[in-house]
Amino acid sequence: MSRPQLTLPGWVAVIAAAILVVLLAFAFLISPDRGLRVEAKVQPTGAALVQDSAVPPSDLRFDIDQIRTHLLDRTADDAATIDAQATEALLYCDECISHGTPLEVDGTTFQVALLTAPGTDTVFSAAVIGEQAGEPVVQLIVSGQDLTLTPGRGGTLVAQESRYTSTDEPCCPSGWSVQVYRFHDGRFEAGQRISSAGNA
Asked: How far is CA 41 from CA 1, 174, 191, in A?
């Protein structure tokens, strides 16, 4: 019994398929990193507002009172300063500041302090705190409506906020905005902002 032989058109089809597979694999391997991909708005939850359960409070370098004092002691000349709303919350509302999920970059842990509007769990500002000579150092301050900060890949920090139009109810924003911050040369640098519909 003899095996069927491929004809010239059959060999051409096999070779063409093999070349196509190799080209697709090569294109996949050399394609650039597509960066941040945003698929849908993630609704902020209470989980985004509390300290990461994997980091016990005893492992955090600075307590809330130390961070509050450091933020209030900053001057207008400092690179990252807090606004009037944050100052008021820090001065008159003890429960308006809490620890967020810490961020680790190249073995260095940065604490995150979240500021909420009095009587709510809505985050409107956040500070990323580093350490220098045993003292807290503000590395970054981010503000926004319904703000969430999430540690990302490769030592990045992802800030997402809700965006409202004049017709949106407080419960239901019609848009969102995402900005990625990357720690580079001793400071956080803002990347491109990606937004959906809605007004900030």
From this structure: 64, 10, 19
